[in-house]
Amino acid sequence: MKARIPGMPAIRILPLALALTVVAYGQRSVSFLADDGGKVCADLYGQGSKAVLLAHGGRFTKDSWRPQASVLVAAGFRVLAIDFRGFGCSTGPGQENFDTAPFDKDVLAAVHYLKANGATTVSIVGGSFGGSAAGDASIKAAPGDIDRIVFLGSAPNLPADGLKSRALFIVARDDRSDSGPRLPGIQAQYERAPQPKQLIVMGGSAHAQYLFLTDQNARVMQEILRFLTAP
Predict the structure, then answer these.
(1) HSE (CB half, 13 Å, CA atoms) of 168?
(2) Which stretches does DSSP call E strand in 46-144?
(3) Which of 36, 41, 163, 211 is the most exposed place for a label (fewest CB within 10 A)?
(4) Computed from CA positions of residues 141, 142, 143, 145, in that sequence, does the dihedral angle turn out positive or negative?
């Protein structure tokens, strides 16, 4: 329903049940340490034994995931969105050099935090370098530590045949970096990755999390949920 105050635009009043649901999505701030002493700041949403870690890209922070976190919480997941070292209040050795920073350590710290706090499975949605860090973490982790990974416009930096997680690669056909199209490199890593895996090539040129700002947002979320909830 809508209420109108004279001289002001109409205000939508949420039904009580919906209002309480929206409040339930509200995040709480947590932090934890990586194995090299790095501090990882994060937002934790929802409850449940199945967790999803959200790993941002270079032009984003943990706050950018709030819309997707709400959808995932509604689907029954506990959600943790992290800031990588050098972003937000997260800090750690090597953060001064983006190209060599050990971002996979932040991912592994987040996975271990979730497992230590009741998560039975941890999957990751990673955009751009966040997806690459998630892939490298899967390769270095123990089997079973990371259940599934969604690579948005990304692939592991390390050879993908070492992945220990199910993998979904989503990339826009005309996504380009300064050095050229991203699709060929991502497809090459996809072909090296072990089964089960899937590659979805979207139309357009939006890179990684920018897909959520296009008219393909609904399809991207649908594919992510399908992958995360598949047996």
Answers:
(1) 25
(2) 50-55, 78-82, 121-127
(3) 36
(4) negative
User: Tokens standing for 2?
Assistant: 């809508």
Percent of the chain with pLDDT over 90: 88
The C-alpha angle with vertex 128 and arms to 107 and 80, in degrees rounded to 5, equals 40
* Burial class of residue 175 (count of CB atoms within 10 Å of its CB; 0-12, 13-18, 19+): buried
pLDDT of residue 25: 58
- Which is it for strands 28-33 and 39-45: parallel, antiparallel or unpaired? antiparallel
**CA dihedral (91, 92, 93, 95) positive or negative:** negative
Asked whether 145 and 109 are in contact (CB, 8 A), the reply is no
For residue 22, what are its two tokens?
């929206």
pLDDT surpassing 50 at residue 108: yes
Contact 55, 133 (CB under 8 A): yes
Supply the pLDDT for residue 27.
84
Distance CA 42, CA 110 (A): 9
For 26-229, give the CATH class.
alpha beta
Calpha distance 94→102 (Å, rounded):
7
* Other C-beta atoms lying within 10 Å of the C-beta of residue 31: 14
Q: What is the pLDDT of residues 41-50, one digit of tens each?
A: 999 999 999 9
> In this predicted structure, what is the pLDDT of residue 17?
36
